[in-house]
């Protein structure tokens, strides 16, 4: 859940997008209640880790992670790749620097439990067009 919210940092993620991203067709019962349980557990886990549990906010139509998108490695990396592509033809040295900055954003393995298909229709996709969830 944290990965799904982080990939849309600072933006509200609607209930159907979260439900689809977490369970797809595998959810039975009441998805709204199941999601509320997950949010409650996430807030407790954030608090236990020393982060403010208020990072996960409830906003219609559902939840958002209240952080600057540039605090999310995947989003910062995506921005750097897009910038590098924008200058690659005119300034290959600057592009190489931006690509190195993009690579430096990745620490550890990409989140393995994020569904590798588009989330909520248009989906969240890195600049290279690969599905969200890792390079």
TrEMBL record:
<feature type="DNA-binding region" description="OmpR/PhoB-type">
    <location>
        <begin position="1"/>
        <end position="67"/>
    </location>
</feature>
<protein>
    <submittedName>
        <fullName>Winged helix-turn-helix domain-containing protein</fullName>
    </submittedName>
</protein>
<dbReference type="InterPro" id="IPR036388">
    <property type="entry name" value="WH-like_DNA-bd_sf"/>
</dbReference>
<dbReference type="Pfam" id="PF00486">
    <property type="entry name" value="Trans_reg_C"/>
</dbReference>
<feature type="domain" description="OmpR/PhoB-type">
    <location>
        <begin position="1"/>
        <end position="67"/>
    </location>
</feature>
<keyword id="KW-0238">DNA-binding</keyword>
<dbReference type="InterPro" id="IPR001867">
    <property type="entry name" value="OmpR/PhoB-type_DNA-bd"/>
</dbReference>
<dbReference type="InterPro" id="IPR051677">
    <property type="entry name" value="AfsR-DnrI-RedD_regulator"/>
</dbReference>
<feature type="region of interest" description="Disordered">
    <location>
        <begin position="115"/>
        <end position="135"/>
    </location>
</feature>
<dbReference type="InterPro" id="IPR016032">
    <property type="entry name" value="Sig_transdc_resp-reg_C-effctor"/>
</dbReference>
């Amino acid at each position: 859940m944290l990965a799904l919210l982080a990939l849309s940092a600072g933006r509200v993620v609607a209930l159907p997008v979260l439900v689809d991203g977490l369970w797809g067709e595998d959810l039975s019962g009441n998805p709204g209640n199941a999601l509320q349980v997950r949010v409650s557990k996430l807030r407790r886990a954030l608090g236990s880790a020393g982060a403010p549990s208020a990072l996960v906010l409830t906003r219609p139509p559902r939840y958002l992670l209240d952080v600057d998108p540039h605090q999310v490695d995947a989003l910062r990396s995506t921005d750097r790749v897009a910038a590098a592509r924008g200058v690659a033809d005119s300034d290959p040295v600057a592009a190489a620097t931006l690509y190195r900055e993009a690579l430096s954003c990745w620490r550890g393995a990409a989140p393995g439990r994020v569904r590798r298909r588009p989330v909520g229709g248009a989906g969240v996709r890195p600049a290279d067009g690969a599905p969200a969830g890792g390079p």
